[in-house]
DNA sequence: AGCACA
């Protein structure tokens, strides 16, 4: 039996999912209507609608912030639009429009999974080098003998990791592929002006700690092992 | 009813 509120278990999202919409109007018209109904709740980044078999009668309205989405949901759920009460829930997924803004956007979901598998294999090779006695050049890299520039900072556990010694070409996508394979991964932050460093957030400090141990001194490129510490504060 | 974005 359908519960009174199916939306209860979906966490707030800046995108709302609208359905039970009238299906016999053009996508363009639908988006225009929705825009005029919803723009009063805040800035709309995008309205996504499709007339495909699966997607007709539904739309995704992407707001700039969650508060706008929440107000829109509360006030407009059940609103009679073109003779039908619209049903509104938070979207189950993060919209690409917002991922693009926060730097976590990736071309394709599937591509991400494939890449993750490759990275795991690369990781296994590389980690042995750091943990063992020699690297490929025959230099000694024993654990107690790490060059000071590769020494992680000694800071108390934190759910956010501070990653440094990254190559300049390293971008958020690469880091996401690497870190998102660990449980509790949330997001990567990079600052354009500060090359070579990144912050990676996890659910809590045990999750971040695990990722740190696993990826410590992982080489994104042949000569640059990343150095991972807990972030300050 | 149906949760996408190339």
TrEMBL record:
Domain of life: Eukaryota
InterPro entries found in the cross-reference section: Nucleotide-bd_a/b_plait_sf, RBD_domain_sf, RRM_dom
SUPFAM superfamilies associated with the record: RNA-binding domain, RBD
Residues in RRM domain copies: 14-93, 159-233
Compositionally biased intervals (Basic and acidic residues): 107-129
Keywords, comma-separated and alphabetical: mRNA processing, mRNA splicing, Nucleus, Repeat, Ribonucleoprotein, RNA-binding, Spliceosome
PROSITE patterns (UniProt xref): RRM
Protein name: RRM domain-containing protein
Record organism: Dictyostelium purpureum
Organism classification: Eukaryota, Amoebozoa, Evosea, Eumycetozoa, Dictyostelia
């Amino acid at each position: 039996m359908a519960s009174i509120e199916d939306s209860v278990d979906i966490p707030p999202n800046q995108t709302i999912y609208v359905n039970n919409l009238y299906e016999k109007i053009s996508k363009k018209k639908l988006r225009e209507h929705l825009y005029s109904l919803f723009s009063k709740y805040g800035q709309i980044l995008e309205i996504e609608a499709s007339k495909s078999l699966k997607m007709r009668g539904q739309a995704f309205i992407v707001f700039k912030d969650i508060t706008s989405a929440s107000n829109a949901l509360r006030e407009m759920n059940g609103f009679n639009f073109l003779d039908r009460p619209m049903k509104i829930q938070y979207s189950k997924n993060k919209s690409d429009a917002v991922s693009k803004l926060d730097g976590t956007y990736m071309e394709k979901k599937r591509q991400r999974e494939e890449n993750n598998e490759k990275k795991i294999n690369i990781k296994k090779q590389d980690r042995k080098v750091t943990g063992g006695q020699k690297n490929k050049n025959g230099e000694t890299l024993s654990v107690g003998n790490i060059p000071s520039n590769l020494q992680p900072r000694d800071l108390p556990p934190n759910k956010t990791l501070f990653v440094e010694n990254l190559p300049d070409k390293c971008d958020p996508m690469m880091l996401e592929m690497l870190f998102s394979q660990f449980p509790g991964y949330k997001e990567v932050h990079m600052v354009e002006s500060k090359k070579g460093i990144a912050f990676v957030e996890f659910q809590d400090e045990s999750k971040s700690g695990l990722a740190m141990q696993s990826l410590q001194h992982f080489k994104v490129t042949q000569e640059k092992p990343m150095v991972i510490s807990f972030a300050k504060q």
